[in-house]
Every structure is written in structure tokens, then in C-alpha cells.
């Protein structure tokens, strides 16, 4: 019995050690990749055409799914909140409360998670496939810097496009919220948006949107890092793609915690 | 190192996780020469090519290409040197998301500030050279294995390199296409006055292209000479390597 427990404990320790090694390797790799990105992104010549192409491509790819999600979040959130506020006789606060919840937290984070699921895995698979079929090597050997052309352009595009998508989703989610409101009470669109804009302050909207730059960067850099360093043929490509989603989603949530704390520290008067 | 050689390799070592792949390779390739590198799978032939252009960093040793010490170059200098080197990968490594035209234009647009007319002219010229002018607007997925190799070859020579490195140029091709590609490589080598290093298992390809050849085994060069000399060698390893049982009817080892 004692030997069995020692065996199990040993096995657990070895497994934990391995997982920690993998985790720190990933963390170190991502940090090094970030430093390289920051070194390269400001160096001319700027790949404006490639960045624009990726922004359009990635934006168009995720536009429908984040739009539908935003609409449903706004609708459901309002439907859930309405009876609660009614219980306290505070129905008049419904547009404002929903607006704050959507703008401050729900839309930025959920849009980022969906974006990461769609885009991070896509970049991971694309670059991974280029790596294992030697296309990245071919680029490098022809005197072109593949990091600049493939990684910097994509990561810059994801960083820039997510805030734009978030603003779009905020608008769509407010339409969803308004539809949920008019299903139970008589309210004009003008009154609804008036209440929302009255309740949502600068300190609610700006940090909510600003943090999506960080989320967009995370979605791009994680997919690019895992794809760019993919090994072992098609198996490696699949692994890069699926791991990208998990790691990017997790990092988005962790950074959200940090950024919320930072926001509250920077704007202590936010109510 | 002298400047009479296009490629000079001195005591090159490379290992992966303690597994020694190249163990003191020294080799000289003269300007205009076609050198064939033979060896069993996993003996480090492709690693040797990748070390030459620093796609892989050797553990030790010295490499001079076109009179420049590759190990001492910074990124910018290395990229400049790479413009003088063509590399045909085993899979041709065409960029999937780009058409044939874009694949060919890519190294020119990125490396030279040429007018579009000059780029177009160069693209048409190399496509004619590989006899695939009709494929200009096709995507790589629409091409056969042989066509992909030809386009890969066209992309490698579009910058008119001084040195061409071929990694298994005829792998996966039928004997007729193998002969066509090998002849094409030889013709282009003569037309562009290039020096070539060809890693291959294909004796037919080697017979067409080679001026000289080396055989690598267990990280060492076991024999150097002309194809005739290698085939006539009494060395047991070479006799086994080039024996009738090992070489099939297509000439592949």
C-alpha cells in the first residue's frame, strides 16, 4: 500500500514537473516572440498592404459570428435583468445597467474569446502548415524575413481589428437589448439609447475598448507563435491550431483580470 | 580559405539531442561544378544543405559560400548572401496562398526595387525556361508533382543565383519526369553558369547532373569522386549502397 502511494506520488510529481516545464517553455517562447515582434514592428518598410489584407480577411471572417453572439448576449442579458430590476422597482435603470455591463465587460471579453477561437486557431494552422511544408524556410532562404512578412503583419492586424469588431458588437448587442426591452415594455429607441449614453461614462467605454487591443494582440501572437514553431508534420499543425485556442482564451481571461484591476486603479471614481 | 571555391566547408559538426548527424564534414565545391551528395536516409544530407544557408546553425565548423564566411554574417548580410543562392526544397515549398505568378514575383518584389515590367519579363523568362508558361495564373494546388518541382525550380533561379542547392529534386516523380527534371537542372545550370549541390537518392538524376559526388554515412564523407569512380569502388559500403538489389530499375537508390 505504501509503495503504491509513493509510486502514485512519484508519477504525479513527474507529470507536474513536465507540465510546468511545458508551461514555462511556452511562457518564455511567447515573451521572446513578443520582444522580437516589438523590435520588428516599428522597422520600415511597413507592410501596409499585407496588414490591410489580413485586417479585412480576419474582420470579414469573424464579423457574422461575433455579430450574432453580440445580438444574443444583449437580448438574453436584458431578459435576465429585467425581472430582477422589476422586483426592486428599478426598471427605469434597465437600459443603463445593461449598457454598462455590455460595454465594460461582456462584449469585449466574449468578442475576444470568439475572435481567439476563430482567428488564433486559423493563424496557428496556416503558419504551422507553412512551417512543416518548408514554405517558411523557402521564404527565409530567398532573402525575405518571414517573421516580418508572416508574423508581424498578422499580429498587427489582429491587434487593430478586434477593437473595431468590439465597437460593432457593442452596437449590435444594444439592438438585441432594445428588442428585449420592447418585448415587455413600451420604449422608443431614442429613449433607450438616451438612457444608455447617460449611464455609460467615458471611464466605462474607453477602458473596455482599449483592453481589446491587448486581447487582439494575444489572439494573434499565440497563434503565430505556436504555428511558426510547429513540428512533426500534420500532427504538429493540428496541435498548434487547438493549443492556440486554449492558450489564447486562457491568457485573454487572465489579462482581463489584470486590466480590470488596472482600470479601477486608473479611474478610481468609476461607479 | 581561398577564393577558388564557391563552397568551402571545414570540419562541420551538427547533432540533435546528442544524436550526431554531421561529424566533421569537410568539402570544397569549385565554381561551376555540380556536386551530388549521396547517403542513406537520416544521414544528414538535408541538414548539410540547411547548415549551408543557416536555416540550421551548425554546432562547429566553418562554411564559406561565394567567398563569405556564413557564420560571421549578421542578418542583413546573410539576407544579401541568400540572394545569390537558390534552394529547391524536396516538396518544392510553393506558397499555397499565392498563384504561380505571385510565387515567382515574391523574391523579386521583396528584394529588388525593379519596375513591374522588368519583373514581368523575368517571370515569363523563367517560366519559358521550365516550359510552363501556361501555368502562370494557376494556384499550386492545381499543379502536378512534376509541375510543382518545375515552378519551384523557376522560383529558385529567378534571381539568377550563383549557387543552387537541390534537396531531393526528383523524389516522388516517375522515371520520365525524373529524367526531364534532371535534364532541366543540367540545362539551367549551363545557361545560368551556376554551381550546384544536389542531395539525392536517385542514381539516374545523379548520372545526368553530376560532375562529382560524395557519399555520407554516419556523419562522415566515406567516398568522394566521379559517379563512375563511386560505382566502380570496391568499398563494401559503396558496393552495398550501389548494388543491383539496392538500386531499382528507375535508378533510385
Q: What is the secondary structure topology, with strand pairs?
A:
The complex is a heterodimer of chains A (271) and B (253).
Chain A: H1 2-41, H2 48-87, H3 94-132, H4 135-141, H5 146-184, H6 189-199, H7 202-228, H8 233-266
Chain B: E1 5-16, E2 19-30, E3 34-39, H1 45-52, E4 60-65, E5 68-69, H2 75-82, E6 85-88, H3 100-111, H4 116-129, H5 145-157, E7 163-167, H6 175-192, E8 195-199, H7 203-209, E9 212-217, E10 220-225, H8 227-232, H9 236-241
Helix pairs in contact in B: 4-5, 5-6, 6-7
What is the architecture of chain B at the second tier of CATH? 3-Layer(aba) Sandwich
- Global geometry of chain A: globular
Helix content of chain A: over 70%
The named CATH superfamily of chain B: P-loop containing nucleotide triphosphate hydrolases
The SS-based structural class of chain A is mainly alpha
Strand content of chain A: under 5%
Helix content of chain B: 25-40%
Name of the CATH class of chain B: Alpha Beta
> Cα-atom Rg of chain B, whole angstroms?
18 Å
Q: What is the global morphology of chain B?
A: globular
* Most extensive chain interface and residues per partner: A-B, 15 and 23 residues
Q: Strand sequence of the main sheet of chain B, in spatial order?
A: 6-7-8-3-9-10
Tally of alpha and pi helices of chain B? 9
Low-pLDDT windows of residues of chain A: none
DSSP summary, beta strand count of chain B: 10
What pattern of helices and strands is seen along the backbone of chain B? EEEHEEHEHHHEHEHEEHH
> What name does CATH use for the topology of chain B?
Rossmann fold
Amino acid at each position: 500500500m505504501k509503495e503504491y502511494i509513493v509510486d502514485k506520488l512519484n508519477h504525479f510529481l513527474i507529470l507536474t514537473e513536465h507540465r510546468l516545464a511545458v508551461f514555462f517553455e511556452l511562457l518564455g517562447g511567447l515573451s521572446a516572440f513578443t520582444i522580437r515582434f516589438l523590435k520588428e514592428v516599428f522597422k520600415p518598410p511597413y507592410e501596409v498592404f499585407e496588414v490591410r489584407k489580413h485586417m479585412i480577411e480576419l474582420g470579414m471572417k469573424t464579423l457574422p459570428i461575433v455579430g450574432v453572439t453580440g445580438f444574443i448576449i444583449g437580448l438574453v442579458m436584458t431578459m435576465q435583468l429585467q425581472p430582477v430590476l422589476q422586483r426592486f422597482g428599478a426598471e427605469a435603470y434597465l437600459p443603463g445597467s445593461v449598457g454598462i455591463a455590455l460595454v465594460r465587460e461582456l462584449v469585449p471579453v466574449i468578442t475576444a474569446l470568439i475572435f481567439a477561437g476563430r482567428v488564433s486557431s486559423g493563424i496557428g494552422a496556416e503558419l504551422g502548415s507553412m512551417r512543416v511544408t518548408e514554405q517558411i524556410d523557402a521564404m527565409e532562404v530567398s532573402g525575405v524575413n518571414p517573421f516580418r512578412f508572416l508574423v508581424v503583419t498578422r499580429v498587427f492586424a489582429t491587434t487593430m481589428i478586434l477593437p473595431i469588431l468590439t465597437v460593432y458588437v457593442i452596437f449590435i448587442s444594444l439592438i438585441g437589448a432594445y428588442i428585449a426591452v420592447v418585448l415587455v415594455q413600451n420604449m422608443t429607441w431614442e429613449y433607450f439609447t438616451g438612457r444608455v449614453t447617460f449611464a455609460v461614462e467615458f471611464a466605462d467605454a474607453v477602458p473596455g475598448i482599449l483592453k481589446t487591443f491587448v486581447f487582439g494582440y494575444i489572439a494573434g501572437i499565440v497563434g503565430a507563435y505556436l504555428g511558426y514553431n510547429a513540428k512533426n508534420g500534420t500532427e504538429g499543425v493540428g496541435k498548434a491550431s487547438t493549443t492556440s485556442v486554449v492558450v489564447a482564451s486562457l491568457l485573454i481571461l487572465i489579462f482581463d483580470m489584470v486590466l480590470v484591476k488596472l482600470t479601477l486603479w486608473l479611474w478610481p471614481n468609476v461607479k | 580559405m581561398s577564393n577558388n571555391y564557391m563552397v568551402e566547408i571545414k570540419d562541420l559538426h551538427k547533432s540533435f539531442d546528442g544524436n550526431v548527424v554531421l561529424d566533421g564534414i569537410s568539402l570544397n565545391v569549385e565554381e561551376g561544378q555540380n556536386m551530388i551528395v549521396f547517403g542513406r536516409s537520416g544521414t544528414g544530407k538535408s541538414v548539410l544543405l540547411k547548415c549551408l544557408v543557416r536555416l540550421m546553425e551548425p554546432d562547429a565548423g566553418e562554411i564559406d559560400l561565394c567567398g563569405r564566411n556564413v557564420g560571421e554574417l549578421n542578418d542583413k548580410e546573410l539576407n544579401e548572401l541568400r540572394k545569390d543562392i537558390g534552394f529547391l526544397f524536396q516538396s518544392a515549398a510553393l506558397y499555397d496562398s499565392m498563384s504561380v505568378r505571385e510565387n515567382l514575383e515574391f523574391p523579386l518584389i521583396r528584394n529588388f526595387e525593379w519596375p513591374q515590367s522588368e519583373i514581368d519579363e523575368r517571370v515569363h523568362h523563367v517560366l519559358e525556361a521550365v516550359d510552363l508558361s501556361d501555368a502562370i495564373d494557376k494556384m499550386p494546388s492545381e499543379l502536378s508533382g512534376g509541375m510543382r518541382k518545375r515552378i519551384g525550380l523557376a522560383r529558385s533561379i529567378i534571381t539568377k543565383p550563383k549557387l543552387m542547392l537541390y534537396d531531393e529534386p526528383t523524389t516522388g516523380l516517375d522515371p520520365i519526369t525524373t529524367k526531364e527534371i534532371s535534364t532541366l537542372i543540367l540545362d539551367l545550370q549551363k545557361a545560368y553558369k551556376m554551381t550546384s549541390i544536389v542531395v539525392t537518392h536517385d542514381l539516374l538524376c545523379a548520372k545526368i547532373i553530376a560532375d562529382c559526388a560524395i557519399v555520407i554515412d554516419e556523419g562522415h564523407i566515406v567516398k568522394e569522386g566521379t559517379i563512375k569512380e563511386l560505382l566502380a569502388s570496391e568499398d563494401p559500403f559503396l558496393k552495398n549502397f550501389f548494388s543491383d538489389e539496392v538500386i531499382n530499375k528507375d535508378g533510385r537508390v
